[in-house]
Amino acid sequence: MGLLGFYLRKLFNILKGEVLVLPSRVIVGIFFLVVLLLPAVTQDPYLLRILILTSIFAILAASWDLLSGFTGQINFGHALFFGVGAYTAALLNLHAKLPPWGSIPLGAMGAVLAGLIIGIPCLRLRGTYLALTTLAFPIILMGIVFAFPSITGGELGLSGLSRLSGSRLSDYYITVVVMLGLVTIMWKITDSNTGIIFHAIREDEVAVRAAGINTTRYKLLAFCLSGFFAGISGGFYAHFMRIAGPSTLEVTMSFTVVIWAIFGGIVTIYGPVGAVFVLFPLLEFFRFWPEYRMLMFAVIVLLILLYMPDGLFPWLRDKVETECPRCKIRNIATRKTCRICTAPLD
Amino acid sequence: MKKTTVSWIVLLGVSFVMAMSFPAWGADTIKIGVIGPMNFMQGKGHWNGAIMAEEKINGKGGIQVGDKKMKIELVKADSNEFINVTDATNAMELILTRDKVDFIVGGFRTEAVLAMQDIAMDYKTIFIGCGAAHPELCLRVAKDYKRYKYFFRGTPFNSTYLVKTCFIQMATVGAIMKKALGIPKVKVAIVAEKAMWVDPMIKAAEGFIPKMGMEVVGVWRPSAVATDVSAELSAIQRSEAHLIFTIFSSSVGIPFARQAGELKVPAVQVGINVEGQKDGFWKATQGMGNYIMTLNTYCRGVESTVLTKPFVEGYVKRFGETPTYTADTYTAIVLNLAPAIEQAGTLDAEKLIPIMETREFLSPSGTVGFMKDAEGRHLHDLKWGPGYLTSLGVQWQDGKLKGVWPNKWKASPEAPEITYKGIVPYKMPPWVVKKYKK
Amino acid sequence: MRRGTMLLDILISGLISGSIYALLAISFSLIYGIARIVNLAHTAFYMVASYCIYLGIYKLHMHPVWGMLLSVIIVTLFGLISYKLFMDPIREHEAAVLIGTIALAMAMQEIMLLIFTGDYLSVPALIDGYFKIFSVKVFYQQLLTFVVALSILAALWVLLIKTRLGLAIRSTAEDREVANLMGMDESRVTMITMGISVALAALTGAVIAPLTTLSPFMWTHPLIMVLAVVVLGGMGSIKGSFVGAYILGFAEAIVVFVAPMGAYLKGSVALSIMILVLLIRPEGLFGVVFEEER
Q1: Secondary structure element (H or E) that encloses residue B33, with its range
Q2: Using beta carbons and an 8 Å cutoff, which residues of A are at the interface with B?
Q3: Per DSSP, what are the bridge partners of residue B403?
Q4: Roughly how many angstroms between the first and final C-alpha of chain A, as a whole number?
Q5: Which of B57, B198, B202, C282 is most buried, most CB within 10 Å of its CB?
Q6: Cα(A6)–Cα(B222) distance, integer angstroms
Q7: Closest of C176, C164, C161, C233 to residue C37, by C-alpha
Q8: Domain count of the fold of chain C
């Protein structure tokens, strides 16, 4: 009992000292709580469906950021990982009769393989060349999908996949918990030594090589990790929709992922996640004006880019937090002095 | 600045929640969801057919359900299925949960309808598909009757029959050419868009054509959205084909007809060209799409049954264009659902299904009856043949679509000869006649 | 004899598709070379131009040539305004520019969808009819495209090499800051280049529109091909875009003639070629690698 109390007090202190100190962390905490506790308020299947799809795409967008935001290798063909994950999970489910908890991770491994296949040629390319080459891969794969309709189902895709779980509610919890978990893992990766090397590769690859680090390995690692997470989201999508079709490989899917990530703010992980949670329900909301939906979406994106070119969430974050000039720790903007080193914040 | 941002967000959030939970009006109406790609011809057809149905039924005061008369209320849902299958499934779920529709009609793109069907079956709601021809949709009914029995095909008849009808039309034209131009063996070029529904048709065609005494000289598969097929046409001309068997459902049908006409390719076009079914085809091909023939369901001036003329003319008067087959949402509501509801006296799907699956009724395109498979299991798929649905063969003749098939057609030696009212003879393009006439 | 005519078919078909891609790719390369802006809305401008011609001919009953002129003017103005409003302010952020141009293209698509709906439309040819070269039928309009592509290339060459404006454009492309120091108004040069680029896209729309079907989604496939061409040829190099366009045009033609069952694969084959070339030469065939962009 005493031990429990000790841990509880420790948790409380951590909360008070680390989390509640910064509004951004508070918001993240609230986000976790809201997402997990929403079914207590409403269990409307339509709303849950929207949130499940949002979570799936949030994993996808965050995985894009991990690759393109952090290592700077802009990937315009992210739909490749999504599609490969979806199709592999579907094939395993249909032919090897694997249940979703088996087919989805294996589907993700397929996407990792795809990551290696496209990562290797892209090692020598830079900037726009890289972006446009990555654009080509899902298109080529789509051609292959159409060329072998007996295996891939052609433009009808593979249908009749098993459900994720028995009910909409458990689907929701599985997806949301996996999303929160994977996003946290991605965040932790970026916060680790590997993450620092990713940052460095983006900033100045030659310097990193000069420091003796094998950038090839890290760049490929980024491709594979990104592929893995995106493949998981692809597998989830296939099992939730119960169909894996060529629409998962479309150019518009790649572009939409990039739009979400940049809208939310690259080189963060929370940016793309937040962006999907804002934009995807917004797009559904605009259903009430079906003709103007996409137009409003495009206009919003343009406006955000004009006024907040670094992304929505970094912009918001800068409004509520400032960085201490001396110790570089973030503080809430209303403070006069830094909470760690007591230097004045101006 | 921070305050206004926060209040903005709160306002947006509140209005979002409010809008999401708008009440269902009119509890005493039958709600019918109409789902389709509303920005495109097919969805417009869905909606227009449904509007005509609503006007007809509500004009009579509604449908007699048991001891009270209930009007119908249409709920429009844009599936956006051509662009985004996810959107289609979201739309389906929305009308089932938010609007709580009692019945659903519509759907077009097979990939989307397969997913939408699953959702409707989850909610045990009757869904009449008005656009997708893939047999799988009805095979599911036979394989898992308990789950999929709520699905019926409204239009068109499934693709195996589509193929059969096409072949019959092609054989008819081939025979006309052989007789009129004295060609010993008609050469056929198969040009089919790259799409999965087409693949089995090509194989079947390659097997069928030699049996009719004709020869296949090549198979071309342009992309379904190709805009320039001059390369393919060049190759087809070199193959010296007399007849081009077209299988197009997408936009490629327009440039193909146009460029073939501009180049005066010495071959006739028969088969499926969905763009060729639309009134706008003539203009879209700059008038070069003359003489092409395609499968179709409706044609001005042709009467498949006594109900055809009032429907087609009513549609033309109301909407200014000939109906395409997706407008059969009208049949689904007025002639399929309404009488079944009146007969059952209830909206309960469980009671309606046994009635619907055994009923046969007259419709503007023919007699509708539902099939069983070889093992006697219900398929809820449309019956084909003389006396049921045969569809039409239509040909563009100088700016107008004319019905040219069935013209003295016998499905089998013992079957009755069929010619619908309003059918005219098939015409060959003059440059083809000039090239081959001996 | 059969083999011979097929080769001829491929040659002619390749020349024609190559010219179409060359027209689009050259104008795309221009603005990339100068302002480092990857204008993904480029083919969307081409789409708007085609629709403008449709409007001109069918709603305003103009002669096709006047319709072309009108559409070029309108689209150029529209391009300049969108550049000033949407692309200029965010030029520094490369990623933002990419997204911005995609969003712009989507907005244009939606507006066209609203005005014209998704139905397919078409535009009459400038010169009707066809003629025969060695038993291969070629449309006059296709010949026109080929001729226009070559003349535009020639005109551009003259502009860039022989005129002072061309000198300004070339030096701004090489080094923006130094050009500024030398007294060339860099932003004005960029505006003018943008104008030329969009005008060319509009002209391409005018010339190609009769060969194709108009739909609000007609810009996506050409965009992918243009990107493939430009990357293959080397970004920022006009000569490279020209050569790349014809290479990919011939590749497509070969696929259609040699493998008619696989005609739909012509896009994938073209892209695979692009990737193969990039494996060997990461800057593309004629691409220039700038020091600070490593």
Answers
A1: strand B29-36
A2: 44-47, 49-50, 53, 146, 149, 153-157, 159, 241-243, 245-247, 252, 281, 284-285, 287-288, 290-291, 316, 319-320
A3: B394
A4: 47
A5: B198
A6: 72
A7: C176
A8: 1
Check whether A226 has a pLDDT greater than 90: yes
| C261/B219 Cβ within 8 A | yes
pLDDT at B20: 47
In this prediction, residue C3 has a pLDDT band, given cuts at 50, 70 and 90, of low
Could you give the domains of chain A? 45-308 (1.10.3470)
Chain A residues touching C99 at Cβ < 8 A: 258-259, 262-263, 301, 305
What are the pLDDT digits (tens) for A259-317? Answer: 888 888 888 888 999 999 988 888 888 776 767 777 877 887 788 888 887 788 888 88
**Interchain proximity A295–C274, CB inside 8 Å:** no
- CB count within 10 Å of CB C66 equals 13
Whose tokens are 């080397």? That residue is C234
Percentage of residues of chain C with pLDDT beyond 70: 93
Rounded to the nearest 10 degrees, the angle between the axes of helix A100-122 and helix A215-241 is: 140
Distance between CA atoms of B301 and B304, rounded to whole angstroms? Answer: 10
Please indicate whether, in this complex, the C-beta atoms of B286 and C260 are within 8 angstroms of each other. Answer: no
Assess C192–A contact: CB distance below 8 Å, yes or no: no
Domain range enclosing C118: 2-293
Cβ pair B85:A247 closer than 8 A: yes
Neighbours of chain A (3+ CB pairs under 8 A): B, C
Kindly list the residues from chain C whose CB atom is less than 8 angstroms away from the CB atom of residue A299.
103, 107
Q: ipTM for the complex?
A: 0.74
Interface of A with C in 14-73 (CB under 8 A): none
The answer, for A128 touching chain C at a CB cutoff of 8 Å, is yes
Task: Write the CATH number for C197.
Answer: 1.10.3470
pLDDT at A312: 86
Residues 6+ apart with CB under 8 A from B263: B230, B233, B237, C130, C137, C139
